[in-house]
Amino acid sequence: MSAMNVSLVGVGGQGILLTSDILARTAARAGLDVKKSEIHGMAQRGGSVISQVRFAERVYSPIIQDGASDLLVSFERIEALRWRHLLRAGGKVLLNNLNLAPVTVSSGQQPGVDDLDARLAAEYPGACVVEGLRIATDLGNARAMNLVIAGALSTLTPFEVSVWEEAIRERIPGKMLETNLRAFAAGRDAVRG
User: Fold this and answer.
1) Which of 28, 60, 126, 149 is deepest in the core (most CB within 10 A)?
2) Domain coordinates of the chain in residue numbers?
């Protein structure tokens, strides 16, 4: 298998780093070599966060070059546009249908994006869109949104559901495990129709 490059983007507090860790553990459990990198930025202040995961029989670098991501997973809609340059031609996009105004916009330092729907439709006509927050809220825990996204992401990877679930069990504390497994399953169901 040639290397699969996955870039996960969003803002601080959305569970991006946990989700990328679960993806990396899943790939490792499947017997692949895995490399992961993270950029936190001003994550604790609602700033951009990016985590990149590469897996294959052998991976030499954790860094994904611009235009080389096979899959862009955006936990927030504006971040999908900000990180567009990472996606390769023909790459897939998983988009959480959520708007979080960046700190620079909410503080008045930058204008917001007025034509976001049109720009996203133009950039990503075949995007897989998930209502992560709504699904997690319907399950009773909005904080499980990242596991909804992980469930949707799992349908775009070559790994068996059982391997994903093992990685989740390894990473999620006992009292939150069942809620997160339900969120994961709901995310899978949301994209499989």
Assistant:
1) 149
2) 4-192
In sequence order, what are the residues at sequence separation of 6 or more whose Cβ sits closer than 8 angstroms to the Cβ of residue 186?
135, 136, 138, 139, 148, 151
The topology (CATH level 3) of 4-192 is Pyruvate-ferredoxin Oxidoreductase; domain 3 (3.40.920)
DSSP state of 109: S
What is the helix (H) or strand (E) element at residue 115, kind and residue range?
none
Q: Which two tokens stand for residue 173?
A: 């504390």
Helix, strand, coil proportions of the chain in percent (round to 5)? 45, 20, 30
User: Looking at residue 15, what DSSP letter applies?
Assistant: S
Beta-sheet strands, E only, within 25-106 = 33-39, 48-56, 69-74, 87-96
Task: Quote the CA–CA distance of 150 and 171 in Å, as a whole number.
Answer: 13
Alpha helices by DSSP H, listed for 16-144, are 16-29, 77-82, 103-106, 116-123, 132-138
pLDDT of residue 46: 65
